[in-house]
From TrEMBL:
Cellular compartments annotated: Secreted, Extracellular space, Extracellular matrix
Residues annotated as domain EGF-like: 3-43, 177-218, 219-262, 263-306
Family matches, as Gene3D superfamilies: Laminin
Organism: Ridgeia piscesae (Tubeworm)
Name the UniProt record assigns to this protein: EGF-like domain-containing protein
């Protein structure tokens, strides 16, 4: 920065003569005056009594009382020897007008320069320079942009508040958030992710049951990881999109109250098992198996009984409409599913003859009768 000439313009510090020096200045006085202790003002060597207004009375070498005007004052024309204020701003005698954006302000015996809005006075007291409101720390010039939604952009003599990404102009100083989720300007996966609006932005989050970056979401197969699903040992995990479903395994059914999968007793109805005759079904947990009474064995298909000990009485065998086998020496007609009326009649007729026979036969016939 170059030297400031304090002797030029409104910064003039001396009441009479100012001489600029590098980095400073010196004051001196006209003839008949001497420098005051403050080294700026001048006082008359021989004071006198006439009123000079904006100046001082002194006695010149001829002995005449005269007025010496201070800087910023001039003598009145005519016989009156009086100093009047120079209207620099009115008379266009100021040096402010020589500089862009500099304005003159009149004061008694002097004037000052000020600057237009958006500018500040330079150290020379006359010229103005642009104020960078975006980086100015002082309260007088600091910008009023909303820092959360805008960015301050300095312009010549002013500044503007530019919206940050994700915001739209609300007024000169602030912007309001754009809800990308509401206006559908987001890029989230359409069905497998949800859009979450954030101040000035948004976020794509995969829905439950999916993984990914929100732009692309892939289904999670919870059934591949036992820790990722809550299915019990009585249930089968079925993967869905999204999430999963627990369904009862074959041999189980959902309880209407507890909603747990409970064992189905397939032996209570011939519609639930394939055993070849009435008493041959044995329920197990989640399943069943078929068995045969004495005198027959289970075939390889697991459901059919093959007679190994047929009836010995040919008359009994002929009368049996379905099966006839010998159980512990007694010929018995056995019914296979489905039970028809004739078979039920034959079994009922035999019940009374076998009431005291082997307990297994009694249970067999009794269950068939039911």
């Amino acid at each position: 920065m170059g030297d400031v000439n304090e002797c030029v313009g409104p910064l003039h510090p001396c009441s009479h003569i100012c001489s600029n020096t590098v980095g400073s200045y010196t004051c001196s006085c006209h003839a008949g005056f001497q420098l005051a202790p403050n080294h700026r003002e001048c006082t008359a060597v021989k004071p006198c009594q006439i009123s000079c207004g904006g100046g001082q009375c002194y006695i010149d070498p001829s002995g005449k009382e005269r007025c010496m005007c201070d800087v910023g004052y001039r003598k009145t024309p005519g016989p009156l020897d009086e100093c009047l204020d120079i209207q620099e701003c009115v008379d266009q005698a100021d040096m402010c007008r020589e500089h862009a954006h500099s304005l003159c302000i009149e004061d008694e015996g002097k004037y000052a320069c000020t600057c237009s809005h958006g500018y500040k006075l330079n150290p020379d007291g006359m010229s103005c320079s642009d104020v960078d409101e975006c980086h100015e720390e002082g309260k007088a010039y600091k910008h009023k942009c909303d820092v959360a939604s805008t960015t301050c952009v300095n312009t010549v003599g002013n500044y503007s508040c530019t919206c940050k990404d994700g915001f739209i102009q609300k007024n000169f100083f602030s912007c309001e958030d754009i809800d990308e989720c509401a206006v559908r300007t987001h890029g989230c996966a359409r069905h497998t992710a949800k859009c979450v609006n954030l101040p000035g932005s948004y976020e794509c989050r995969c829905r439950n049951g999916y993984v990914g970056d929100g732009k692309t979401c892939m289904d999670v197969n919870e059934c591949l990881d036992s820790k990722a699903n809550t299915c019990s040992k009585e249930e089968i995990c079925v993967n869905l999109q999204p999430l999963y479903e627990c369904i009862c395994k074959p041999g189980f059914k959902r309880h209407p109250v507890t909603h747990k999968c409970e064992d189905v007793n397939e032996c209570v109805s011939p519609l639930l098992n394939k055993c070849s005759y009435a008493s041959g079904c044995v329920n197990t947990y989640g399943s069943f198996h078929c068995s045969c009474q004495d005198g027959a064995v289970l075939a390889n298909d697991g459901v059919t009984c093959v007679i190994t000990n047929p009836c010995r009485n040919s008359a009994t065998a002929a009368s049996c409409k379905q099966l006839c086998l010998n159980v512990n020496g007694t010929d018995v007609c056995m019914c296979t599913y489905p039970l028809d009326n004739q078979c039920r009649g034959e079994v009922s007729a035999t019940i009374h003859q076998l009431l005291h026979s082997h307990a297994t036969i009694h249970q067999l016939l009794h269950s068939q009768e039911r």
